[in-house]
Amino acid sequence: MLDRIEVVQGDITQQQVEAIVNAANNSLLGGGGVDGAIHQVAGPELLEECRKLKGCPTGEAKMTRGYRLPAKWVIHTVGPVWRGGNYKEDEYLAQCYQSCFALIEKHQLKTVAFPSISTGAYRFPLERATRIAVAETVNFLKGNNFVEKIVFVCFNIRVYDCYVNELKSIQKVYNIGNGNNTLCPYT
Ligand code: AR6
């Protein structure tokens, strides 16, 4: 199961996967960060399709085509803005991953790349967000044999190290539970 998770440092717009996830805002009409990068590479047709979606509530996800991106599809999800931790931020972030996985399952996507949702402009603490991202992904993959690869695309080394460390600690727990000592191929 962990062998289907990859961590790479890079730009999500360049990933050769079926779908990439966008950390969008409620309007779905573009913005900065990963959202801006995705719209820039996908081209104006993406914004046109997004206008028809009439926004997206926090924690939910909507899918569009990828247009000029290498990825055929974009799954737009809206993470919570961090407000200190007492406003259900953890639940909303977990819900983002669950909403994306529901679409991944519905459309039978095999390869999907995720950015670190909410940890940029929305200021969600990175370690905490990474624990949620990994836990939700592991939980989904346990019950799904169709997905071949989930890639966590980390824009910088700090994010990359955080994901690798989290996966290492999960792997320990997982290996103890299964007596399985194969190494996870995150690179
Ligand atoms: N590829 C992969 N990761 C990236 C890229 C990229 N090209 N560019 C940035 N990141 P953010 P949020 C990382 O701010 O916190 C937008 O304006 C970045 O380093 O993009 O969910 C939206 O319109 C960070 O680790 O998303 C919303 O208004 C992660 O992506 C708001 O920002 C998320 O940072 C959403 O904020």
Explain the overall architecture.
The protein is an alpha/beta fold. Helix content is 41%, strand content 17%. It is built from five helices and six strands; from the N terminus they run ββααββαβαβα. It has helices at 33-42, 44-52, 89-106, 126-142, 157-178, and strands spanning 5-9, 19-24, 61-65, 73-78, 111-114, 149-154. Strands 1-6-5-2-4-3 form a six-stranded mixed beta sheet, with helices on both faces. Helix 4 crosses helix 5. The radius of gyration is 16 Å and the shape is globular. The structure holds ligand AR6. Ligand AR6 binds next to strand 2 and helix 1.
Ordered list of secondary-structure elements with their pairings:
Blueprint: E1 5-9, E2 19-24, H1 33-42, H2 44-52, E3 61-65, E4 73-78, H3 89-106, E5 111-114, H4 126-142, E6 149-154, H5 157-178
Bound molecules: ligand AR6.
The site of ligand AR6 has 24 residues, from β2 and α1.
Summarize the structure.
41% of the residues lie in helices and 17% in strands. It is an alpha/beta fold.
